[in-house]
Amino acid sequence: MDQKEVYHLLEQVKSGEVSIDQAILDLKEAPYQDIGYAKIDTHRGLRQGIPEVIYGAGKTADQIIGIVKEMTAHHQKHIMITRVSPEKAVHIGDKVPMIYHKLARFGQIGEMPEKSGKGRILVVTGGTSDLPVSEEAALTAEMLGNTVDRLYDVGVSGLHRLLDHLDSIMNARVIVAAAGMEGALASVVGGLADCPVIAVPTSVGYGASFGGLSALLSMLNSCASGVSVVNIDNGFGAGYLASMINHI
Q1: Distance between CA atoms of 141 and 191, rounded to whole angstroms?
Q2: Is residue 43 within 8 Å of 76, Cβ to Cβ?
């Protein structure tokens, strides 16, 4: 149950369509649903403004299907499933109407919602190898009601590619910068933008990149003010935070 649903419920009580006792019961049932292998936080949409998201890695396809069915039974219209393998996606898609974004390993239940963000979110990547993480960020932000622009393969090894898109950088309200290797993209973007920059280190790179640790440390030590950092490969977290900023 989210904030809109609570308003609707209260309007129904006011009009006499729903009794006070029924409304109290609906609100009591809101916090979570225990389905054995998962306790679904159906109260999160009301509490935080954004409903629960399903983390697909480590869950079986049948478990994901069960969680989705329970969420939809409680009127959740837009559901995100992150880190879903193509094999699981086939099985899930046979049971529930899921749109699968293979590159991002991202499952989408329901259509994209209406845009409610204040401005535009720009997702920037260093290279094509960073696309799975950046697309996870972009899709997350879109599923949370934001207009998202994508600016891909503009890493610092060819700085002119980035500088050709200064208008996009200047017009963004929030920027997500995803890069592996040495992770310098976030500092460069942070030095050009007048909005918050969310840096996402990716696990792309040769041996001494240590699976994204090198990029993570570089981004944490950025000399550009206004740059914050999420965990390695955490495109979802970056897209979620960008949406929160864009809705303030």
Answers
A1: 23
A2: no
Long-range pairs of 67-70 with CB within 8 A, sequence gap ≥ 24 = 67/35, 67/38, 67/40, 68/92, 68/96, 68/98, 68/109, 69/96, 70/33, 70/35, 70/40
Residue 29, classed as helix, strand or coil, is coil
CA atoms of 135 and 126, how far apart (whole Å): 13
The per-residue pLDDT for range 69-105, each reduced to its tens digit, is 988 887 788 999 999 999 999 999 999 999 999 999 9
Work out how many domains the chain is built from and give that number. 2
Same domain, 165 and 87: no
Task: State the Cα–Cα distance between residues 233 and 237, nearest whole angstrom.
Answer: 9
Q: What tokens does 32 get?
A: 């979570």
Sequence letter at residue 92: I
Last residue within a domain, chosen from 59, 82, 109: 109
